[in-house]
Description:
With 150 residues, the chain is mainly beta. It has one domain: Sandwich (Immunoglobulin-like), CATH 2.60.40. It has one helix and ten strands. The strands form two sheets. The chain has a five-stranded antiparallel β-sheet with strand order 2-1-10-7-8, with no helix packed on it. Strands 3, 4, 5, 6 and 9 form a five-stranded antiparallel β-sheet that branches. β1 (40-48) and β2 form a beta hairpin. The chain starts with a helix and ends with a strand.
Amino acid sequence: MPLLLRLRVALVALFGVLLIPIGFSSMRGLTHIVSCSAEISKPFEVTFDANGTPLLTGSSVVEAGTDPVCRSLRSDLSLRTVGPNRVEVTVPITNEGTDAWQGTVALMVGEVEIPIRIGLVPPGETRSETLVLNLPAGVTGFSGELLIGP
């Protein structure tokens, strides 16, 4: 057998051996960050008492439902007043799963969508972001949605 043919056969055999682990394994979560396959939304409503303290009504804890990746995500919104017509919103995302998660998080207030930069959330950890909403004078409440998605 000519030398060139033997080299080609050896090269094909080498590639075949190197591709065996790839063919028989799942790369899910190893080479990329997994994310939700659908958006999760949780409506909430905020009212202010006589002292101007924000009151979050409805369940503030977001659970992602049946999505195989995002069912292990939890979020518990918290609010506090930081000045006249200003509310500080803290959005923590806890990953109780076994895979790292990175996706989009947004707060929908009325018709305005506010993106929130949470970043990568490793398994078993919590990442949070705090933002300040400047509200028009005289606002007695507002409603919105926390959106978590791919």
